[in-house]
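Show me a record, fold above all:
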Amino acid sequence: MFKIIFSMICLVLFAWCATAPSDIQASPETSNLVAARLPVSVARDGFSIEQSRDFHRRATVAELLTGRDVSLWWNGHVSNAMRSAIIPRRSPTRPLSHAPRPEIGAIRAQTTLGNMSLETFLDHPESYARGFIVIHRGQIVFERYPGMQQSDLHLWASNAKPTVSLLIDLLIAEGKIDESQPYKTYMSDFEGTALGEVKVKDILDMATGLNIEENNETRSDPSSIAIRVFLSEFGEADPIQNKWISVREILKDGIAITEPGSYFGYGSPITQALVLLAEEVTGHPFQDEFDNRVWSEMGVDGSLYMAVAPDGMPAAHGIVSSTLLFPVSDYETDVLNC
């Protein structure tokens, strides 16, 4: 069953992630801002040596959060910029067949760039779409790559989060984790911390009640738990302690602000707490367990890249890359046809 679920997750998340919609609004100010950016086609046709070296040097958390040219480069070159764990293909695959349906490109919608067809949106210089694919009943029915080559790697971003919850769910099914127990039951060093008192279920639901949310406010606050976690993953100094510290230690600084389970509070730090939990329970690195239990069973024709922090902890909440399209095994194709 988990293979069916994960296959469907992959098909949806890649179509969403690769489009990389811009937050920029269509206005005179926007036009000036966009004009100053490199066109998305540069990511498809190739960056110059000078651009690549410059963007590699400038790929910091603060710079990437601006969504400008460095991000355009980094989203397709994460494994160049950060140490990464490589999870290889292990099972035989069968290529997906093509059954083009051009009418999909003619579907229209109201966007911040105006009322336009999907085809026009993908080609629009301000959409910054990188790639878009629609798969129906095991066949590729629509496919465009305005900002990447078909074989290029691209960042999953937060679409990677289900990889963590899926592994935790498998461990729950095996009886290795009881979701009704507090985090400290499995993470003894979190005894006496706010996170340690939160039930595993509430962590899975992103309802911790702690100040570890990720939103516009916390992303603009260098002292927030969310930004401190990102800085740790990039090997940058913690703004509180003025030195590098691990994500594990940062999570211990979380403060309770409301009752756990009372509201949804999205945040990448929460996902990383589950990565630590999976490693603690299994005694193996998260990427190895995900490989053994999930990726090796998928039959994908490509590797998965997970960026790792200086201490080796994978940033499974989102700094994960693969190609947009990879053929699937006979099993998954049968599932998609049903």
Summary: The radius of gyration is 21 Å. The chain has two domains: 2-155, 159-287. Strands lie at 84-87, 97-98, 108-111, 114-117, 132-136, 139-144, 153-155, 304-307, 320-323.
